[in-house]
Amino acid sequence: MKRIGVFLCWCGSNIAATVDIEETMAAARKMPGVVYVDHNKYTCSEIGQAMIREAIAAHRLDRVVIGSCSPRMHENTFRKTVEAAGLNPFYLEIANIREQCSWVHKDKLTATEKAISLIRTAVAKAARSEPLFSTEMSIERRALVIGGGIAGIQAALDIADAGFEVDLVEKEPSIGGRMAQLDKTFPTLDCSACILTPKMVDVAQHGNINLITYSEVEKVEGFVGNFTVTIRNRARSVDMEKCTGCGDCYAKCPSKVDSEFEMGLAKRRAIYTPFPQAVPNKPAIDRANCRYFTSGKCKVCQKVCPAGAIDYEQQDQLVEKKYGAIVVATGFDTHKLDNYGEYAYGKHPDVITSLEFERLVNASGPTGGKILRPSNGQPPKNVAFIQCVGSRDKAKGNPYCAKICCMYTAKHAILLSEKVPGANAFVFYIDVRTPGKDYEEFYNRAYEECGATYIRGNVSKVFPDGDKLVVRSVDALSGALVELVVDMVVLATSVDARADARELAQKLSITTNAYNFFNEAHPKLRPVETQTAGVFLAGACQGPKDIPDTVAQASAAAVKVVSLLNKESLLSNPTVAEVDIKLCSGDMSCLAVCPYGAIAEKFIEERHGREIRKRRVAEVNTALCQGCGACTVACRPGAINLKGFTNEQILAEVDAICL
Amino acid sequence: MKVTTDKINSNLIKEVEEVSGQKVSACFQCAKCTGGCPVVWAMDVYPHQILRYAQLGLADELLNSKTLWICASCQTCDSRCPREVDIPKVIEALRLVLLRARGGNYLHPNNLPARVLENAPQQGLVSAFRKYAR
Amino acid sequence: MSVKPEGFEPLIVAFCCNWCSYAGADLAGTSRMAYPTNVRIIRVPCSSRVNPSFIIRAFQRGADAVLVAGCHPGDCHYHSGNFFTRRRFTVLKQMLEYMGIEPERFQVRWISGSEGAKFASVMNNITAEVKSLGPNRKLRDAR
Questions:
Q1: Same-domain check for residues B79 and B118
Q2: Residue A151 falls inside a structural domain
Q3: What residues in C contact A653, CB-CB < 8 Å?
Q4: Residue A598: which CATH number?
Q5: CA B113 → CA A52, B107, B108, distances in Å?
Q6: What is the C-alpha separation between A177 and A139, in angstroms, rounded?
Q7: Which chains touch B (3 or more CB pairs under 8 A)?
């Protein structure tokens, strides 16, 4: 008979106010195998843990059941506690009497009854627990960073500085991402390029960073410490070794298309670098728009290239590489405005998005940094800024706040007053949100010093009137109707997850929220980890974020990667599947359902009388097995069991509940 | 009541800011002034609304408001304003702007009736000269 | 023949996968979303760990209903586990119905870790449904 100790936690009044601890203790004493019962105000405190350790020694306990908060909260804490007392950590079971009992039930009588049942269930499971042990696994001490925006750049630099090799994969021909498109950054009005481009150059020159541009992640296999990633190097049609980046090719290329980097406000060639400070500063051919690839004639770039670097025969290449850890830093897309006909975007050239405005203000942008109306090239006198376009809109946009728009709109209003003296900025807002160091002061500056008029009310309609635009709204503060005649309208477009975020999430087996932003493992306490060990998040791919937060998160992710890669080896998850070869029929149903390829066939030799026969059985690779248990159900003879969640344990739980 | 580009760009804000020495644009409409005003019950336009109208250039609504003449300049609002706007000074400036705008309000000492001069407090006279001086 | 005694409180066994539904139950807890005490949760790593025999056993031992809850299809922490769950329990459900067990007594639901409210509403609904059905007599061990 096992010697089980039951410890009940009050969790202050969180549990004790709804569950009668005395009565639960009395009931626990009568449960089979229970030899000791105690309680504590806060079991997770050092005092509470010491009490458990002492009780284990004093009463020779060999199994421990704790009635407390969710095991998702403190299972590891208490496993360490019982381990410190000399027991196997898997001799611990937790009955969740807080999240699944005291917090959701009000009636003390029935809540206590349920708590007793939960304790009985945990006792039944604990009585059938067996010692489990981890095995050591090697670590591939290299990291992969997906996405070459400021998040990916920062993470790659930090990991590389710590002495580990990093592959930085970027899908565009150059790193830089969204930040490269910005002009100034709030709240300091630093020039974005001035602080970003040195980092981009650092990336290119860092001995530990291998820059892989114009490439995408195709497939991810393996597990923490041992990921195998297939990267698709898209055919650049330019030999990176030979190209010197002289630029003769794109000066002569005859095909002009809208520049993605310039948000369609300028043209680029079919062979192009996205922007002049590109890293690597070597072009790629956009085959969909290249005259040679579409019509078979041209080859101008090949003729003018002094280095002979143009290679039309290049093919996409799939490269397989091994990594110990992965940082996902894929950034964001701006919200599509198809649902917002009322703002006349796309119908009138002077209605532009905030990112387009950013290019207009930028000294290296299409207007050389002059704010000019796209319709007639004249500087605007009155500019309306409309906030929350696609944000805080449950009906046809994103229900969430995009977080950065209030601040960049304040920045735009300030920049407008600086660049076009005498111009008036009108900002239509729902709420102005400025949580951040020096943010409120920056916003104050916009209306106090730079003359921006903030009008509390969202714009309902924008329509052209002659060569002007009429903006209709209301000032909800005064109740006055507002009808402004302006020269330009700037839409503060919301922040979306990348269109392919879900696809990438599936490759990495991480999860996304309802809006396709990647989920962190815990919203407060594990903000850069994901539910998949070894995969970390940085930047706006996890949720809308400004540059300071992005950089902070990227450095945090880098630290997590470094502390992982610094380890000599990893301990494997001990709750893995196990084959009882006596029962195994060798039909390999298990192999078919295993998502990790953790099951392989093995031939064993058995003596049958005088004859030795070979027999096929299944074998579990414990390093690959993640412990889902799908195989245990597929197995017809019931030969596979899952350690920590054995058939016997689960059936005992069912029996204890139905007692 | 309607806000237009012309009204919002009119000189009203600048004039009020110049006369009062206060930044009308600094107000972010927390409405603490109105919450604490001891005579707010008698006002048709609340103090925070006065500032809002001024920001938006709603001259008619401002100048026809009884509030301008009800404010007792007790400074309760001013002492609590988080944006350091001295609202009584703004209201005083609005009175000045209004009176000046109406025209024909130049006050000459010779035109003051003797009995007014006899009974009026000196401070009142100084104030009247300030208000009606062009 | 179902009996509906006064004040019948059904016993409901819920198998919840650790990553989504168990987390959803925890979220219902942290959000203080009340639901009836009739539900008892068994934590499993994945809904694909739930063997149909566990469900039969629960009915044998007197459960009035059984719920299996996992991640939404496509969101399984283990890539594909809940697809197996879906197939297995489509078959089991038909078998249970054939044996005379009302479909409301065996339910499979997808509840993500962020759906605390859905967890609570599923618990409320299943409890109400089973209450109106009365105690389960089918499959029960003679005791």
A1: no
A2: yes
A3: 42
A4: 3.30.70.3270
A5: 96, 12, 11
A6: 30
A7: A
Question: Which residue, of A469, A495, A521, is where some domain finishes?
Answer: A495
Structural domain span for residue A379 = 335-495
Structural domains in chain C plus CATH codes: 12-133 (3.40.50)
CATH of the domain at A301: 3.30.70
* C1 pLDDT more than 60: no
Do B78 and B37 lie in a common domain?
yes
What does the CA dihedral A71, A77, A79, A83 come to, rounded to 10 degrees?
-170
Tokens of B58: 């709603």
Residue A73: closest C-alpha in chain C:
C26
Instruction: Mark whether B11 and B26 lie in a shared domain.
Output: yes
Domain CATH for A453: 3.50.50.60
Using alpha carbons, list the distances in angstroms from residue A361 to A31, A177, A192, A488, C134.
Answer: 74, 18, 12, 14, 71
Please say if the pLDDT value at position A482 is more than 90.
yes
CA A44 – CA A8 distance, rounded (Å): 11
DSSP string, A173-190: SSS-TGGGG-SEETTTTE
- The least confident of A209-223, A242-256, A514-528, A536-550 is A514-528
Q: Is residue A624 part of a domain?
A: yes
Residues A80 and A199 in one domain: no
Return d(Cα A625, Cα A629) in angstroms, integer: 9
Q: Which residues of B touch A483 (CB under 8 A)?
A: 2-4
* Min Cα separation A245/chain B (Å): 50
Looking at the structure, tell me whether residues A279 and A375 fall in a common domain: no
Supply angle C-alpha A119, A123, A124, rounded to 5: 120
Same domain, B96 and B117: no
How much is the ipTM here? 0.94
Predicted TM-score (pTM) of this structure: 0.74
Q: Which of A444, A455, A478 sits opposite B58 (nearest CB)?
A: A478
Give percent above pLDDT 70 in chain A. Answer: 100
The answer to whether A612 and A605 have CB atoms below 8 angstroms apart is yes
B87 and B69 in a single domain? The answer is: yes
Whether A569 contacts A136, CB under 8 Å: yes
Residues A243 and A325 both lie in one domain: no
Predicted confidence (pLDDT) per residue in C35-75, tens digit: 999 999 999 999 999 999 999 999 999 999 999 999 998 77
| A604 strand-pairing partners | A615
State the Cα torsion C118-C119-C124-C130 to the nearest 10°. Answer: 120
Residues A603 and A638 in one domain: yes
Closest Cα in chain A, distance from residue C104 (Å): 19
Indicate whether B64 and B125 sit together in one domain.
Answer: no
Which chain B residues contact residue A477 at CB under 8 A?
29, 49, 52
Residues B56, B30, single domain; the answer is yes
Q: Give the domain range for residue B67.
A: 5-103
pLDDT in tens, A97-117: 999 999 999 999 999 999 999
A145 part of a folded domain: yes
List the single residue in A with minimal CA-CA distance to B51. A478
Query: Which tens digit of pLDDT belongs to each residue from A47-93?
Result: 999 999 999 999 999 999 999 999 999 999 999 999 999 999 999 99
Pair of tokens at residue A341: 């006909």
Residue of A76, A654, A655 to mutate, testing the C interface (most C Cβ within 10 Å of its Cβ) = A654
**How many structural domains does chain A have?**
5
pLDDT in tens, A186-200: 999 999 999 999 999
pLDDT in tens, A563-590: 999 998 988 889 999 999 999 999 999 9
The pLDDT confidence band at residue A624, using thresholds 50, 70 and 90, is confident
- Residue A276 backbone phi and psi in degrees, to 5: -60, -30
Considering its fold, how many domains does chain B have in total? 2
CATH at B35 = 1.10.1060.10
